[in-house]
Please model this.
Amino acid sequence: MDHREFSGMKSPSLRLPAPAKLNLTLRITGRRADGYHNLQTVFQFVDWCDWLEFRANASGELALREPLAGVPAEQNLIIRAAQLLKDYAGVSAGADIILEKNLPMGGGLGGGSSDAATTLVALNRLWALGLDRETLMSVGLRLGADVPIFVFGHAAWAEGVGERLQIVELPEPWYVIVVPPCHVSTAEIFGAPDLTRDNEPITIADFLAGSHENHCLDAVVRRYPVVAEAMRALAKYSPDVRLTGTGACVYSVHGSEEEARASHEALAGAWTAMVASGRNLSPLYEALSGLSSCI
Ligand SMILES: C[C@](O)(CO)[C@H](O)COP(=O)(O)OP(=O)(O)OC[C@H]1O[C@@H](n2ccc(N)nc2=O)[C@H](O)[C@@H]1O
Ligand SMILES: Nc1ncnc2c1ncn2[C@@H]1O[C@H](COP(=O)(O)OP(=O)(O)OP(=O)(O)O)[C@@H](O)[C@H]1O
Model:
């Protein structure tokens, strides 16, 4: 922690990452009465991250610097997460937050959800609330189905709407992630009339044996053909190419950094792409483990 002067008092600041996730498979097994879908998915983190810096203040204000174009601060998941935690725990302090946004929005990488989760974890420390991880996960679920996994912080098999999590230890491959030039709305895909919603459930063992389907894929490429184009481009360099979440990002799986970098170089002229390494432990908790105490 870095101690600086703020509002006349010594206020500690905390700079933490908000990593992207990949869905290594995404199965839709039913639709609930509230319109949400029951899923089976596997989450793994990568070392491609937004970065957030937090400092508590005594004024009670929640302020965000470097706001996102097109997203009013009160709708930003960072401010929404901070406000929710403040209300939940009855906190009088506020926070000044600086966002370094690196992850594409609407990419299926969960960037907004990850920002929200990092905010909950960081402010729980800075405001000295002492809430446990499970409580933060349930607070986070009120912001979105993808928030709990980022608070959970370990690669997991997920069921329910994505909040019932079971740790899995997976290989940590290298990925090439392509960001196609389109934004896919998660609500549009889950609302698509042509989405198959009653797929058979599988087991974790089926996934580990190679079942990697994403049941959103057909609905996504029908609406965004450029996503299929990106997959074809990646398929020239890897036999294993997948869609994350409801897209738009697609990725290829590689056994070595060298292979991933060579594929990236071959693609880079035509596509926006990133090389990233798979992480079972979230970079958020990797960073926190270097600090004095952890939630
Ligand atoms: C596609 C995934 O990214 C896979 O990890 C997530 O399921 C989406 O999580 P998210 O973006 O946090 O989703 P939310 O913000 O909670 O919901 C966005 C919209 O997606 C739909 N939605 C989301 C999750 C889910 N299990 N079933 C749904 O039907 C709902 O229509 C909702 O209005
Ligand atoms: N801090 C934030 N970062 C990104 N998007 C945000 C943020 N706060 C609010 N949003 C809104 O949420 C929308 C979805 O953003 P996000 O980057 O999480 O999409 P995504 O990666 O497709 O998410 P998911 O995989 O969870 O569906 C954005 O288009 C934006 O309007």
Observations:
- The pocket of adenosine-5'-triphosphate (ligand 2) is lined by residues 68, 71, 75-78, 105-113, 115, 146, 186, 245-246 (CB under 6 Å).
